[in-house]
Amino acid sequence: MCGRFTLATDPMNFIRFLLEYDASDAFTPRYNIAPTQPVAVVPNNGTERIEFFRWGLIPPWAKDPKIGNRMINARAETLSEKPSFRNAYRRRRCLVLADGYYEWREEPGGGPKTPFYIQMASEKPFAFAGLWEAWRPQGEVEPVLSCSIITCPANEMLQSIHHRMPAILDQDTYDLWLNPVECPPAALDHLLTPYPPEGMEAFAVSRLVNQPKNDSPECILPV
Fold this sequence. Notes:
The chain is built from 3 helices and 13 strands. It is mainly β. A hairpin with an 8-residue loop joins β10 (126-135) and β11 (144-153). The protein has one domain (4-103, 121-196): Alpha-Beta Complex (hypothetical protein yedk fold), CATH 3.90.1680. The radius of gyration is 17 Å and the shape is globular. It has helices spanning 11-17, 86-91, 174-177, and strands at 4-7, 22-23, 30-33, 38-43, 49-55, 73-75, 93-98, 100-105, 114-120, 126-135, 144-153, 164-166, 200-204.
């Protein structure tokens, strides 16, 4: 799964290296982004710009927005089957911008889990494959825009840390993923595969990251 990640890279760097979109909001470096918080996304809604959505997808039919707290991730293998995700998979996809994420490794004997920070070997920013929805509270005009990060099986390097990883998209697949036209799953499933291990690196970090209130560069320092 993916339960925490970072975006310490200014969105201008995404524009320079990865994207051709305009950042729409002021940017603050984040070193410990947690569920329910705003995350930077590029949605396929025609705006062609970086926006900030709530992390934890709220389906349009939801009675209570708290359901989104359990929908921070969406399994690639069941996107076409799950009622919470299948319509978004066909129509409402997004890039979730990041420059690293955390995963926790279980230790022998049941001791405290060890947090690892995972990033590109180049240390450049990247994008998770994501889904988004617009949920309108009763009596409200403005919808709540929310998103989920898609996960897939871990690659060979990361399997010793966790059996799942977020689906990371190659730059040359962004246009296909963001195509606003409804796409059948067969046109997209091949994008949601483990990222090549040779392009990534992982190292243990302090348990400081275990607390979402800790949001500083110390979270990503090797230990």
